[in-house]
Amino acid sequence: MSLKAQIDLTKIPKHIAIIMDGNGRWAKGKGKFRIFGHQNGVNSVREVCESAAELGVKCLTLYAFSTENWSRPAKEVKALMQLLVKTINHEMPTLQKNKIRLYTVGQLERLPTDCSSALLEACEATKQNDQMDLVLALSYSSKWDIVNAVKKICERVTLGEIKPFEVDEMTINNQLSTAQWPHPELLIRTSGEHRVSNFLLWEIAYSEFFFTETLWPDFTREHLYEALVDYQKRERRFGKTSDQLVEDKV
Ligand code: IPE
Ligand code: IPE
Ligand code: MG
Q1: Cα separation, 197 vs 194, whole angstroms
Q2: In the chain, count of helices (H) and strands (E)?
Q3: Rounded distance from Cα 21 to ligand 2 centre (Å)
Q4: Which domain holds residue 221?
Q5: DSSP characters over 16-36
Q6: 133 lines ligand 1 (CB under 6 A)
Q7: What is the pLDDT of residues 11-67, one digit of tens each?
Q8: Which of the residues 8, 40, 43, 69 is marked catalytic?
Q9: Which atom of ligand 1 is found nearest the CA of 66?
Q10: What's the start-to-end Cα distance of the chain, in Å?
């Protein structure tokens, strides 16, 4: 049976988050510059977006550029930003055809103006689409997001809108840049690295992790299916015992 046929369409995660890693190593392995890997990574982004939307995933969050990535050589950062503008313009038909709505999270103001304006325009142009939300995490880090959330809560306390003892999980959740989406049920990281690299720290508290050795430019729809098949075999217990879950079902 094909991998796709093994997927239970009634148990598709609502939200999948992906740390797209390994572009540089992929290019180096082919004797090319790192940017060649980023360029080829765009094909994987397109394929994964299309197949996730087709399967009925409601939100796909892609880690495209971290706050820490600003420390990379200026030449690579510049090339990545140029690639971003080119890709947004080029991929508009793909987004529209698949009814995908684009969002960004992160410090958009740190991006070059042509980048941030292209992104804002694309978000605006796709706002009528309702098949899937595609969230690009750009100049994003989860600690930055949490710090911001804490600042906003402190302001509300100062204004007397909320009392410190009233602060609960929802208060924090509602101030995160990702507040409008459910937390990802599945987090995928490519390239054999087993770390989170400052991505969605709060939101992945109960996510299932899927790590693969595949480098991002080699990641295809089949790899996404593989992750989903694996995810669907797991028992998500949320602290309960296995027996309790069986009892809950009957
Ligand atoms: C992921 O690939 C893309 C970004 C972080 C922008 P990398 O560029 O990190 O590739 P490796 O991990 O060095 O191979
Ligand atoms: C994480 O990848 C960030 C993105 C995929 C955008 P990195 O390649 O930057 O992560 P580390 O630094 O190796 O953990
Ligand atoms: Mg990397």
Answers
A1: 9
A2: 8, 6
A3: 6
A4: 12-141+183-234
A5: EEEE---HHHHHHHTT--HHH
A6: no
A7: 999 999 999 999 999 999 999 999 999 999 999 999 999 999 999 999 999 999 999
A8: 69
A9: 5
A10: 30
- Specify the CATH number for the domain of residue 114: 3.40.1180.10
> Do residues 217 and 41 make contact, with C-beta atoms less than 8 angstroms apart?
yes
186, containing H or E segment: strand 186-189
Q: How many domains does the chain have?
A: 1
Residues 6+ away with beta carbon under 8 Å from 88: 118, 119, 122
**21 carries an active-site annotation:** yes
Best CA proximity match to 177, nearest among 128, 123, 108: 108
> What ligand has the least distance to the C-alpha of 25?
1
In tens, the pLDDT along 79-138 reads: 999 999 999 999 999 999 999 999 999 999 999 999 999 999 999 999 999 999 999 999
Instruction: Flag whether 118 is in a domain.
Output: yes
Examine the residue annotation and report whether 173 is marked as an active-site residue of this protein: no
Q: Is residue 165 part of a domain?
A: no
d(C-alpha 104, C-alpha 120), whole Å:
9
Q: Looking up tokens 């080829």, which residue turns up?
A: 40
Cα(228)–Cα(226) distance, integer angstroms: 5
